[in-house]
Structure formats: C-alpha cells, structure tokens
C-alpha cells in the first residue's frame, strides 16, 4: 500500500497488462518506475480474460487512413504483428511460466465468414483455410461451416503472465503499490498522483485503469465504455471428452461481434467465454446462459460439471480502436482495447515507453486518432449501447 510521498521518473496507474507491460519496457530502458494498483496486480480484465493470444490492433486500422495516412495505417498493422512477438519473447527471456501454447482457429457460422477468411488468406501466408471436415481435427463441433488455422497465435494463462511480468518489473527496480486506489491527479509537467495515504510525483504519469477507472478521468470516462464478458470453466476433461470437443488444444473464436471464445487450460478444463453485455452488468443467470452456449457448440459435454464461473469488464471504444494519448501536462493514457487486449497491451506498453523516453513516432499516430465520446451522456449511453449490441447480434445472424 502506498504510504508517504515518493518521486520517480514514471508513475503508472493500473496493474493490468497495460500498466505492467509499460513498467517492464520502462525498466528495461533504465527509468525509475512506480506502479499503483487499486486492488491486486492483474485483478481486472488482465487476470480474468480468455487467454487468447491474438495479433492485430483494433478492428479496422484502414478506417483511419485520412487521419494518419498510409504510413500510419501500415505502422498499426505492423504493431498488430509485433504485439504477439513481444509476449512470446518476454515469456522466453524472463522464463515466465504461463502455459503458452501455439495454435489459433477461427470458426465460421455463416458463408460470409468463409468468404472473409479467403480474402484474409491472400494477405496472410500463415493462415490455413479449413473446410468443415478439416476443422474437425481442431474443433469437433457440427455447428461450424469451416474455419482457418493460424500457427503463430495461441493461448496462455493470462493471470500468471501478468503476475510474472510484474515480478520482472519489480526485479528491475519498479516499486509496486497494491491496494492503493488513486483518488486524484495533479496535471502538470511533473504530475502527481494522490491516494488516501500517499502521493507520487513523476516526470510522466501513465493512466492504465481502462474499464475499471470509473470517473477519475472524465475524458476517458466519456470514451471508454465498460462491457461485461463471462467465462465458465468445466471440471477436468477426460481424453474422450477432449476428443469430442477440442482435440486441437487451440484457442478458438467465432467471427461474430458478440462472439464465443474458448480453449483448454493446462489442467484440461474447457474455458468457455462469451456473453458480451454492453449494459455493463453481469446477467443474473450467467451459469445457465453460458452452459447453454457451451452445450450448443459441444453437445458431448452436456453432462460435465462446471467448477468456476467469473466475469470481467473490458473497455470498449466507439470505433473499436485502442485509445492512447496525452491528457494535460505529462499525463498519458491507454485503454479501450474493445475485447482484444492480451497481445495489443504489450505493443502499446512499448509505444508508451518509447514516447516517454523521447521517441513519439508511433505514439503520435495513435494519439492523433479522434476517439468519439459514447453518445447519450452518462444516463443514456448504456441503454443506447444495449440497443447497439442488439443490432450487432441481429447482423451476426445474417
Ligand atoms: C472476460 C474477458 C475475456 C477477455 N478475453 C480476451 C482474450 O481472450 N484475448 C484478448 O486479447 N483479450 C481479451 N479480453 C480483453 C483483455 O483482457 C483486456 O483488453 C486487457 O486485459 C486490458 O488490460 P488493461 O491493463 O488495460 O486493463 P485491466 O486489466 O482491466 O487493468 C486495469 C487495472 O487498473 C486498476 N485501476 C483502475 N482504476 C484505478 C485507480 N483509480 N487507481 C489504481 N488502480 C486502478 C484496476 O484495479 C485494474 O487492475 C478479455 C476481457 C475480459 C473482461
């Protein structure tokens, strides 16, 4: 817990992947770093997510061509590839135990999904198209029309990765203060963050509270909408049950906006996620809804016991592109990964560390993107988003 007044080069607010990966990058560059976390390291989305290690940054970088030009769009595509490399290199370099496994399959529920995959395969030589029967070797379900396999994406234990990275940062000298909610920020060239029992003055402050930040920073409160996603974990599966569900031991997503995502844990449980809820609330009957979803995909698992159920909040950006920029003075921020942040947080952590140490090229591209406020103000944006989500769900059915 933060007590007393401290001073460092960079103070980071939030101990998820955004904050922790930025801390590692800054420590590697020789900066003195303090990280302040309201709860425990990785308490938020980073410790609760589906563990799917997927490349790409944002939904459609090309949509920002008018603002950032061809060079900016190309840079964002390159960052989308780099982000997975950063994670795998960090795990290797620091020997972080987090059950990394390679292999990702995306599955099609509609013919138009298959047509999209064919287009993507033209640009991505590693993408292997799978017809319905080839898919069965990875995902043993009748509901899909086909899919694609990517050997260079995969899955891991996100909580262990984040805690492992925090230890790496700590070993390099970062000071980590848990159970220390930041209550106030003084915006200045040497910003100060304040908790109930202490403060930290720094050359730069970086706000990484994402969907859990509440109303601490109005600019972000207006632009990052917390949405709930839920995960169930089965009992440990037998070899027969695995053969009848996920024989490929790959990470899997379907192609809908309100998607299902799943994988096996290292101890052979099926972790099945979905049920994106833009009302920001967890539905009361999560267990029933999630079990129905899982049974629909894998009828062979109808009788398995569910051992764990949890949910988390992810930060959604209106234009589904992560948000990065400068508030006032030397206070920077990142967040709003829109449901896809395990890998992207890592390249944005690197980008922030570059910016703080004087190389703002990549930061400037991202910071120049205009992120829209969620319409409807505080009162109406949740019902508005719930309606928007209904629209996406209807579109997913076509
Ligand atoms: C259920 C679920 C499943 C997901 N599955 C995947 C997936 O499979 N693959 C994928 O790529 N992405 C997935 N995501 C998204 C991904 O988890 C996030 O994009 C990513 O973890 C965001 O990391 P972060 O550090 O920005 O935010 P978080 O991990 O949410 O961290 C923010 C931290 O800031 C702290 N904080 C907030 N306010 C303050 C304050 N005032 N003072 C101090 N600390 C504060 C919070 O306590 C929290 O620990 C999923 C998200 C959820 C919720």
TrEMBL record:
Pfam families: DAO (PF01266). InterPro entries: FAD-dep_OxRdtase, FAD/NAD-bd_sf. Residues 9-354 form the FAD dependent oxidoreductase domain. GO terms for cellular component: cytoplasm. SUPFAM superfamilies: FAD/NAD(P)-binding domain (SSF51905). Transmembrane segments: none annotated. GO terms for molecular function: oxidoreductase activity. Coiled coil: none annotated. Keywords: Oxidoreductase. This is FAD-dependent oxidoreductase. It comes from OM182 bacterium MED-G28.
């Amino acid at each position: 817990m933060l007590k007393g007044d401290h001073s460092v080069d960079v103070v980071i607010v939030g101990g998820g992947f955004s904050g922790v990966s930025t801390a590692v990058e800054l420590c590697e560059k020789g900066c003195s770093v303090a990280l302040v976390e309201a709860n425990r390291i990785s308490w938020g989305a980073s410790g609760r997510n589906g563990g799917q290690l997927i490349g790409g940054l944002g939904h459609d970088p090309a949509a920002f061509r008018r603002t950032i030009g061809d060079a900016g769009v190309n840079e964002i595509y390159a960052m989308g590839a780099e982000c997975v490399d950063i994670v795998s290199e960090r795990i290797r370099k620091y020997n972080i135990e987090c059950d990394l496994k390679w292999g990702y399959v995306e599955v099609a529920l509609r013919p138009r999904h298959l047509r999209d995959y064919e287009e993507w395969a033209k640009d991505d030589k590693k993408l292997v198209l799978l017809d319905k029967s080839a898919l069965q070797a990875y995902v043993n379900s009748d509901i899909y029309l086909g899919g694609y396999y990517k050997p260079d994406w995969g899955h891991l234990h996100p909580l262990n990765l984040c805690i492992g990275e925090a230890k790496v940062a700590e070993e390099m000298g970062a000071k980590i203060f848990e159970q220390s909610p930041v209550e106030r920020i003084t915006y200045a060239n040497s910003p100060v963050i304040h908790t109930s029992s202490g403060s930290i003055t720094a050359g730069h402050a970086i706000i990484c509270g994402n969907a859990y930040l509440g109303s601490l920073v109005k600019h972000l409160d207006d632009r990052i909408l917390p949405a709930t996603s839920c995960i169930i974990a089965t009992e440990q599966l037998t070899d027969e049950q695995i053969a009848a569900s996920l024989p490929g031991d790959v990470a899997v997503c379907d192609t809908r906006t309100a998607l299902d995502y799943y994988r096996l844990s290292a101890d052979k449980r099926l972790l099945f996620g979905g049920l994106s809820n833009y009302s920001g609330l967890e539905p009361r009957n999560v267990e029933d809804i999630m079990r129905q979803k899982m049974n629909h995909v894998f009828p062979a698992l109808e009788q398995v016991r569910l051992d764990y159920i949890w949910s988390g909040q992810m930060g959604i950006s209106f234009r589904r592109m992560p948000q990065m920029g400068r508030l006032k003075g030397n206070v920077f921020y990142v967040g709003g990964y829109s449901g896809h942040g395990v890998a992207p947080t890592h390249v944005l952590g690197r980008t922030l560390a570059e910016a703080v140490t004087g190389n703002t090229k990549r930061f400037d591209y991202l910071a120049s993107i205009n992120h829209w406020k969620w319409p409807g103000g505080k009162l109406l944006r949740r019902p508005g988003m719930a309606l928007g989500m209904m629209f996406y769900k209807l579109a997913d059915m076509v």
